[in-house]
Amino acid sequence: MDGIVIANEIIDQARKKKDGNCFIFKVDFEKAYDSMDWSFLLYMMERMGFRATWRNWIKNCLQSNSISVLINGSPFMEFNMSRGLRQGDPVAPFLFLIVGEGLDGIMRSVVSKQIFKGYSVGKDKVVISHLQYADDTLLIGEESVDNVLALKYILKCFELASGLRINFHKSSFIDVKRRGGFVQMAVNKLFCYVGAIPFKFLGIPVGANPRRIST
C-alpha cells in the first residue's frame, strides 16, 4: 500500500507545482515468467547474500524443469528448459522479485550518478525514481528529453541483462500536467502509448480526484 500512497502524493504535488513537471512510465513486462535469464537470477542471489548452497538448490530446481509440446491434444517431444520460470510454481513469484531487484539497483545507480533525475517530493525533497512490486513497476522522473532518452537505455540494458522483455507497445507514458508536445516526443522515442490519470497500480486507481464521486 505504501507504493500507492507515494504515487498519489507525487501526482498531487506535481499538479500543484507552478514550475516543473514529472512523468510516470508504467512498465509492461511481456510474459514476465517466460524469458527470465537464469544466470542473472543466480547473479542477483549472490549479490543479495544467498549462500552457494541456496543458489545450487535453486539452480538444480530450474534445470530439472522440462516442458513438452501438445500436438492434437497429446504431449510430444519433451525437452529441458533453458530460461524462464514455470507458471504455477510456488517459488516463481519470489524468484521474480529477486530479479526485479536488479532494476532497483540500476535505478539507484543512475540516479546517484545523475544519469536519470527522479522527482523530488515533500519538504525534505526526497527523490523518487521508481516504485515496484512484483511485475507492477512505475518509473518516475523530471520532465526532460534527457530523462526520456536515459529511461529508454536503462530499460534496454535491464532487458538484455535479465532476459525480461519489456513490451513498450503496452507500456504507458503519463504526463501529470498533460503537456501535449512533450508527451508526443516521449511516446515516439519509447514506442509506447499515452497513458492517463487515473491509472491502476497494484489493482487500485491512482491519481483520482477525491472530490469526485466516480472516477
TrEMBL record:
<dbReference type="InterPro" id="IPR043502">
    <property type="entry name" value="DNA/RNA_pol_sf"/>
</dbReference>
<dbReference type="InterPro" id="IPR000477">
    <property type="entry name" value="RT_dom"/>
</dbReference>
<dbReference type="Pfam" id="PF00078">
    <property type="entry name" value="RVT_1"/>
</dbReference>
<feature type="domain" description="Reverse transcriptase">
    <location>
        <begin position="1"/>
        <end position="206"/>
    </location>
</feature>
<protein>
    <recommendedName>
        <fullName>Reverse transcriptase domain-containing protein</fullName>
    </recommendedName>
</protein>
